[in-house]
Amino acid sequence: MIEHSVRTHKSAEDFPLEEHLAYKIAQVAADPVEVGQETKDMIINRIIDNASVAVASVIRRPVTSARVIAQGHEVAEGGATVFGVDGNYSAEWAALANGTAVRELDFHDTFLAADYSHPGDNIPPILAVAQHKGLDGKALLRGIATGYEIQVNLVKGICLHEWKIDHVAHLGPSVAAGLGTMLDLDVDTIYQAIGQALHTTTATRQSRKGLISSWKAYAPAFAGKMAIEAVDRSMRGEGAPAPIWEGEDGFIAWMLHSPERTYTVPLPEAGEEKRAILETYTKEHSAEYQSQAPIDLARRMKATLADKGLATADIESIVLHTSHHTHYVIGTGANDPQKMDPNASRETLDHSIMYIFAVALEDGTWHHVDSYAPERANRPETIELWHKVSTVEDAEWTRRYHSHDPNEKAFGAKAVITFKDGTVIEDEMAVADAHPFGARPFAREQYIAKFRTLADGLVSPEEQDRFLAAAENVENLSDLRELNVRLTDEALAQAPQTPEGIF
What we know:
Elements: E1 2-7, H1 21-30, H2 37-57, H3 61-71, H4 91-103, H5 123-132, H6 137-157, H7 171-182, H8 187-200, H9 215-235, H10 251-254, E2 262-267, H11 292-307, E3 315-322, H12 324-329, H13 346-349, H14 353-363, H15 374-377, H16 380-386, E4 389-393, H17 395-402, E5 413-419, E6 424-429, H18 444-455, H19 461-472, H20 489-492
Parallel strand pairs: 3-4
Antiparallel strand pairs: 1-2, 3-5, 5-6
Helix pairs in contact: 1-7, 1-8, 2-4, 2-18, 3-4, 4-5, 4-9, 5-6, 5-7, 5-9, 6-7, 7-8, 7-9, 8-9, 11-14, 14-16
């Protein structure tokens, strides 16, 4: 890996094109290096993972809306597929629908470093274009490997959250780079596409603050759609603002810290295998990633309380000692009263570690639908316990969150439960059970089990078998439409009717 320094340059400075971060990313994308076997295997896992959470959300309202919009852009031949249904649709609209389906339940993979990301968001737009262009599985694998590589390394090097910029600003460029790899585009074309993609996918973090709406699911899907359009324009010779990151009126100078800040972004050198996907991790539970370990911790502590004959009704307080990010994003440090509101949206409850820990402690389990149901959130005993939970930042958890040592890096918490009689029960967990260093790391078997669990009752057993066989054979596929999953007619009939729009 090469560590690249990235800073603002005045327009009058001599700043050669080859030194632009977008150009260096484009060079990585254009590098014809082969995809290694470990990376191929993990890409297959994530294709299965994305399909799992997508089929589970197909009949939900936001995903239904996105699907209906895409179905208004049917094409006569070629085109891409949309999760759940048959048909041929324009790639950018299929990417919007599929990206929304993948993101809706907050249930797919994650990478956390200087910033946040869900790198599996790269897959829907890259796959949609591969289907639209009639590419094969080998090309798809190359494109996805690049998408993950670029997003993970941008997340390592550039913190967006600090300046309240949404993390999809790293996704637009990564998708553009992945498409460039997959389509065998030249460096100059990819460079322009990356610049356009960043320029058109920069938004504030209000999508994940306060009253969180369904746009949280649409945001990465929209970024993928914008990246597809950016690549299309660039292939036709249209350019981008430049230098997009380093310009005097550019991204770093005005969207991030200031012209004085220098960022360091690692990128593979020429000929170096793209392996960043292997640093990412998926979710066992449908909740924001930083709540994965606390959910498992709550399940363990429920058993501890039962062994000691202690009841949740007798709890005086619960304090979660955790990282800066967890405290300020999903904890009481966010100062969002909505996170304590039983009538809040599912998206908001998904970003409330107070709610999540209380429910997991009471139930000893977590379910992608039942744990968020309005009747579940409005139980009086749950509300009472929920409002006893608070978070505090702990310097050691913050240090471990940002550690570059995978053996130290952690996204967990220490829970201190104090009872009314003065009894104190403490426990901590650094990583979720499903994490590569956790108690039950996810492997192919677990990804398949997750798919079958979430597809049950929605996808026929025969269709499940067909999709899984295709996904595991992706490298040899000539027709990538086989990676779509169709729901049964009975399941699709459960989708809500959406009001008429423009399309």
